[in-house]
C-alpha cells in the first residue's frame, strides 16, 4: 500500500511568479530531534498529524528529505530597514517549501526558518538558534489565541548543530505557516528594478490569493493599495489593543495578507507607556509602541510608490490617487482603533452612530483611560481586565493596580473617568454583570510576560529543559481563563525583572 503524500502541495507562488525567487534545497540537520510539534494546527490544515509528528515528519522538517510535490525556494524581496532602503534582501535563512489548501480551501505557506544558506544570505549562516525559534513559537501561538491575524508555528526542531552568535548556541529550525509571505518589500524589489511586468503578475497573484473581491476593479493596483491600507490599519489597531510591540516594523515585515510576521525583537508592553521600546537595535525608538500606527502608514506609502507604475499612464493622476489613499490611513486607523477601544471598554455603538463610524466621544473616553494608565504606570493588560471587577462591585483589584502616590495625587481624575465610563455604559441598558462578562471575553488575563518568556527560553537553551516552555505555552493559549488569575502567568514583572529589558533579532 502506497501512503499518500505528506503534503498535498499546490504551489501558486512558484507557478505565478517565476523570477521572483531562487530554487534552493534546505540543508540537512545532522542530528535532529523534536522540540515541539503543533498537532492542533496540523489537523486544522487537514494534514496527517500522526505521520508528521513521527520520524517521517522529523526528516522533512530537518531538511533531510524533500517531500513529494514540494518546490523549495527562497523568495526575493527588498525593504526599508529602520528607514534605509536595501534593494535586495530576500530569504536569507528561510525558504518556502510549498503551499497547501486546508479543508476550507484556504491557502497556507509551509516555510522553514533557519534551514541554511540561500543566495540571499549575504554572508550569514542561514541558521537559527533554539531560543529565537521557541520565542516565535510562543508569541505566534499567543497572538493566535488572542485572535490576531498571525503566522503560526507548525513545528520546532533542534538540529544537533551549534550556531555562533554572541556565544555558541544550540541550533534549531522553525516550520512556519502563513497565508502568504508576500511583503511590501516584495513589491519594492521589482519596482526598484523597474520590472513592471513582474509587478503586474505580483498584483494579480496577491489579489487572487488575498483579495478575490477586487478581481473586477477598474484600477487593480489602486484597489489593492486601499485594501492593504485597511488590513494593516486593522492589524495595528489590534496590536495596540493587547499592548504588542513588533520591534522591527520594516517594509519587508509588512505582509499583504495582513498577518503579523517575524517575531524577532517583539514583546508585550507591561506598564502602559507609548514610548516603550524593547528592541536592542531600535536605538531611537522608531518602532516604539506609540509609533506603530504612523510607521504602518509610512510603510504603506512605500507600497504606494512601488505600485505607481501600474496605476495608469497619467502619472500626475496616479500620484494624486495614491497620495489620497495613503493620507486616508489615519482616518481608517481611527475607525479600527475606536472599535478596539469600544470592545475593551464594553461599549456598544450608539444607536445614532453605525459601528463602522468613529465615535469621537467614545474614542476620547478610551484615550483618557490610556492616559490615566500611563500616568499611573499601570499594567496595560490588567488595567483593562480589572474593569470587569469594578462592574461586579469589587473595585479593589482595579484600585490595587494604581500606585499609592497616583491615588493620592489624582483621585479626582480617576473618579471622574470612572463616573463618565459608567454613565456611558448605563446608556446601553445592560446590566453591569452582562458587560463584565463581555469584558472578560475581550480583555486577556494572560499574555506572554517578558520575564516568563526569557526564563523559558533560557531553560531550553542552557539546560535543554522544555518544561518551562510547555507550561508557559499552555497558559498563553488560554488568555482569558479566569482560573489562571492567581497564577504566575497572570502576574506582571517586578521592577527588578523588567528593568532594562531588551529583545534581540536572533540573526
Folded structure, characterized:
- Helices cover 44% and strands 12% of the residues.
- Strand 4 (79-81) and strand 5 (84-86) form a beta hairpin.
- The mean pLDDT is 94.
- It is built from 21 helices and twelve strands.
- Helix 8 packs antiparallel against helix 9.
- It is globular.
- It has helices at 12-16, 39-44, 49-52, 55-61, 130-145, 184-192, 196-210, 220-242, 292-307, 315-327, 329-345, 360-375, 380-385, 387-391, 396-399, 404-409, 411-426, 432-442, 450-463, 467-476, 495-498; strands at residues 21-23, 33-37, 73-75, 79-81, 84-86, 94-101, 107-113, 128-129, 152-164, 168-178, 244-245, 267-268.
- The strands form four sheets. Strands 2, 6, 7, 8, 9 and 10 form a six-stranded antiparallel beta sheet that branches. Strands 1-3 form a two-stranded antiparallel ribbon.
- By secondary structure, it is of the alpha+beta class.
- It folds into four domains: 12-181, no CATH class; 202-327, no CATH class; 354-442, no CATH class; 450-495, no CATH class.
Q: Topology, pairings included?
A:
Elements: H1 12-16, E1 21-23, E2 33-37, H2 39-44, H3 49-52, H4 55-61, E3 73-75, E4 79-81, E5 84-86, E6 94-101, E7 107-113, E8 128-129, H5 130-145, E9 152-164, E10 168-178, H6 184-192, H7 196-210, H8 220-242, E11 244-245, E12 267-268, H9 292-307, H10 315-327, H11 329-345, H12 360-375, H13 380-385, H14 387-391, H15 396-399, H16 404-409, H17 411-426, H18 432-442, H19 450-463, H20 467-476, H21 495-498
Antiparallel strand pairs: 1-3, 2-9, 4-5, 6-7, 7-10, 8-10, 9-10, 11-12
Helix pairs in contact: 5-19, 5-20, 6-9, 8-9, 8-10, 8-11, 9-10, 11-12, 12-17, 19-20
Amino acid at each position: 500500500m502506497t501512503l499518500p503524500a505528506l503534503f498535498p502541495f499546490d504551489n501558486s507562488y512558484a507557478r505565478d511568479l517565476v523570477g521572483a525567487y531562487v530554487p534552493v534545497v534546505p540543508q540537512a540537520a545532522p542530528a535532529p530531534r523534536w522540540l515541539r510539534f503543533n498537532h492542533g494546527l496540523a489537523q486544522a490544515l487537514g494534514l496527517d498529524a500522526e505521520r508528521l509528528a513521527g520520524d517521517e515528519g522529523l526528516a522533512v522538517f530537518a531538511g533531510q528529505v524533500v517531500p513529494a510535490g514540494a518546490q523549495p525556494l527562497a523568495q526575493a524581496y527588498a525593504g526599508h530597514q529602520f528607514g534605509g532602503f536595501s534593494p535586495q534582501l530576500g530569504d536569507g535563512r528561510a525558504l518556502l517549501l510549498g503551499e497547501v489548501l486546508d479543508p476550507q480551501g484556504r491557502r497556507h505557506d509551509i516555510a522553514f526558518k533557519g534551514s541554511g544558506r540561500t543566495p540571499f544570505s549575504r554572508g550569514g549562516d542561514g541558521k537559527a538558534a533554539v531560543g529565537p525559534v521557541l520565542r516565535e513559537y510562543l508569541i505566534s501561538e499567543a497572538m493566535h489565541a488572542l485572535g490576531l491575524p498571525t503566522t503560526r508555528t507548525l513545528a520546532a526542531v533542534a538540529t544537533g548543530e551549534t550556531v555562533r552568535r554572541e556565544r555558541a548556541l544550540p541550533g534549531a529550525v522553525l516550520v512556519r505557516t502563513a497565508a502568504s509571505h508576500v511583503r511590501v518589500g516584495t513589491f519594492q524589489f521589482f519596482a526598484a528594478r523597474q520590472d513592471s511586468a513582474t509587478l503586474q503578475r505580483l498584483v494579480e497573484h496577491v489579489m487572487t490569493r488575498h483579495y478575490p473581491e477586487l478581481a473586477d476593479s477598474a484600477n487593480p493596483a489602486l484597489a489593492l493599495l486601499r485594501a492593504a491600507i485597511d488590513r494593516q490599519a486593522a492589524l495595528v489597531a489590534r496590536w495596540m489593543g493587547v499592548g504588542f510591540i513588533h520591534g522591527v516594523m520594516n517594509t519587508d515585515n509588512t505582509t499583504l495578507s495582513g498577518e503579523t510576521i517575524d517575531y524577532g525583537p517583539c514583546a508585550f508592553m507591561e506598564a502602559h507607556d507609548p514610548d516603550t521600546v524593547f528592541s536592542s537595535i531600535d536605538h531611537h525608538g522608531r518602532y516604539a509602541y506609540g509609533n506603530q500606527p504612523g510607521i504602518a502608514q509610512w510603510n504603506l506609502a512605500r507600497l504606494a510608490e512601488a505600485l505607481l507604475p501600474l496605476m495608469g499612464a497619467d502619472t500626475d493622476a496616479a500620484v494624486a490617487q495614491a497620495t489620497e489613499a495613503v493620507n486616508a490611513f489615519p482616518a481608517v486607523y481611527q475607525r479600527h482603533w475606536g472599535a478596539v477601544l469600544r470592545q475593551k471598554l464594553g461599549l456598544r455603538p450608539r444607536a445614532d452612530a453605525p459601528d463602522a463610524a468613529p465615535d469621537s466621544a467614545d474614542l476620547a473616553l478610551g484615550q483618557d483611560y490610556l492616559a490615566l494608565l500611563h500616568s499611573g504606570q499601570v499594567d496595560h493588560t490588567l488595567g483593562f481586565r480589572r474593569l470587569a471587577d469594578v462592574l461586579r462591585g469589587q473595585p479593589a483589584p482595579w484600585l490595587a493596580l494604581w500606585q499609592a502616590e497616583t491615588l493620592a495625587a489624582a483621585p479626582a481624575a480617576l473618579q471622574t473617568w470612572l463616573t463618565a465610563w459608567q454613565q456611558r455604559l448605563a446608556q446601553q441598558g445592560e446590566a453591569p454583570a452582562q458587560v463584565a462578562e463581555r469584558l472578560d471575553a475581550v480583555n486577556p488575563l494572560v499574555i506572554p510576560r517578558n520575564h516568563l518568556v526569557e526564563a523559558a527560553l533560557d531553560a531550553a537553551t542552557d539546560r535543554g529543559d522544555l518544561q518551562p516552555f510547555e507550561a508557559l505555552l499552555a497558559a498563553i493559549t488560554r488568555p482569558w481563563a479566569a482560573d489562571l488569575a492567581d497564577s504566575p502567568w497572570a502576574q506582571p514583572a517586578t521592577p527588578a525583572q523588567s528593568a532594562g529589558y531588551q529583545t534581540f533579532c536572533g540573526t
